[in-house]
Structures are given as C-alpha cells and as structure tokens.
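Example S7 (structure tokens).
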C-alpha cells in the first residue's frame, strides 16, 4: 500500500478553511500577486488563481476582475481580455507542467456546479496520461502529486 499525502485537504474536511466575507475573486486594485489567496496574476480586467482544492496539479481559476455571474454581463473588451488571459495561462502551464491535455470549463450557476456562482470563472485543469487512477472512481479521492505551495512557486 502506498501513502497519499494531501495535507491541505484536512482544513477543508474539518471545515477550518478560512472563509473571508465576500467574494473570493474580489481583490484590492493594487494587489497583483498574493500567496495566501493563491492569486498568481491580476491586471485591470482579469485574474488567475490556483484552485485551493485542485482536481489536478496546476488547476487554475481564470476570472474577470469585474464581479459578474453571467457571461453576457461582460462587456466585449473584458471577454476578449479573459480569452487572452486563458491563452497565456494555458501556454504557461503547457511550458512548465508539460501536460498531455487540458480540461477548460465554465460552470454557470450553482445548479451547474459553480461553487462561487456569483463571480464567473473558468477552470483550467491540466491532464496527463494516467493522472486519475481508480482512486477517483472507487474511493472518491483524487491524488495530487505536488503540494499546492510548490505549484504556486
Ligand atoms: Zn466577485
């Protein structure tokens, strides 16, 4: 039997995860990088965070800075910036994590699976051959081989 280390899951399981008031995607204008918030990038229109509860190493959340729940609320300039940031983020993941593919998706509305439905965000999940084994199916456990702090760095 092998040991699975996923220490950041404990706070989630025990409900000790620090919950800030308000939206997890809303940051001060002058904040562009924040390790505690797992904020990797923010400019005037878009931002990129590491997902605190990743499906895989390098699982990113790419969002507009504008607090909007629906795609049609975004002005075209924000939509274009969001696509550009997605392209850059995927390019960086491809270069540094060398995945075999990606899942890129958007859950609009709580019924569609959005955990933060009030602020739309794309999930970018790098995928590798054989990355999710039987654990996901039989034990409802995902194995994440790199600690999130190492991924942030
Ligand atoms: Zn927000």
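Recovered sequence:
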């Amino acid at each position: 039997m092998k040991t699975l280390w996923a220490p950041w899951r404990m706070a989630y399981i025990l409900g000790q995860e620090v919950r800030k008031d308000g939206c997890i995607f809303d940051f001060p204008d002058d904040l562009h990088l924040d390790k505690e918030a797992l904020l990797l990038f923010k400019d005037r229109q878009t931002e990129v965070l590491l997902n605190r509860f990743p499906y895989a190493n390098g699982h990113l959340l790419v969002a507009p800075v504008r607090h909007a729940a629906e795609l049609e609320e975004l002005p075209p300039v924000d939509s274009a910036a969001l696509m550009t940031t997605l392209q850059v983020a995927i390019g960086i993941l491809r270069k540094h994590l060398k995945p075999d593919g990606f899942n890129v998706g958007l859950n609009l509305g709580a019924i569609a699976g959005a955990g933060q439905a009030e602020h739309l965000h794309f999930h970018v999940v790098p995928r590798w051959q054989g990355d999710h084994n039987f654990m996901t199916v039989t034990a409802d456990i995902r194995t994440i081989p790199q600690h999130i702090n190492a991924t942030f760095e």
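Notes on this example. The chain is about 25% helix and 15% strand.
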